[in-house]
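Can't attach files on this board, so I'm pasting raw text. These are the components:
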Amino acid sequence: GAVVSQHPSWVICKSGTSVKIECRSLDFQATTMFWYRQFPKQSLMLMATSNEGSKATYEQGVEKDKFLINHASLTLSTLTVTSAHPEDSSFYICSARDFGGSQGAAGELFFGEGSRLTVL
Amino acid sequence: AQKITQTQPGMFVQEKEAVTLDCTYDTSDQSYGLFWYKQPSSGEMIFLIYQGSYDEQNATEGRYSLNFQKARKSANLVISASQLGDSAMYFCAMREGGAAGNKLTFGGGTRVLVKP
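---
Top answer:
Structure tokens for the assembled complex are below.
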């Protein structure tokens, strides 16, 4: 089946630095990818919808200047946490839709493995 | 109002027994989809089962079945013959507005611990 890969799977950085997380669709093209954030013991909260070739659509309350999203190709979306602070520490997970999937609506959406960010 | 509600924060289940995880949803859309995902401690989201709002039959995938009661707006997950490897967080999610969006709203999750 379709595979979505994230990198890095975990990262530790100093406060004030920027961190880039990549989300790749490995065997399909994804015009739309989604970025979620998950705090410990909590649910996934959608941060933004990443659209290939255009600006991302951010959910209410998410700072677009803080969380930069770039979707420059049909297989890659990146999330950059700018000037990271300890409160940005979280698990970030992306998902992508496979328009060419054969499993119908259920099989079209795939998640990456997630990236755990710790800001010291 | 919560769009997806999972009222059970945690559950114990005996190995080989069945367990039902509750999920209720709220939407005014006629076309929507309901998903269940499993999240082990590693963090990955594993797709389990899907139910479309127009599907008349309850979805089944191996040991997973979805008890879809549209009038009550519930989509409970039943795991039969529980295994130790089923211990994980389980999330119910909803996609509104047809297949075009694929933006999911997640419930708060239920942690399942299977006892040997």
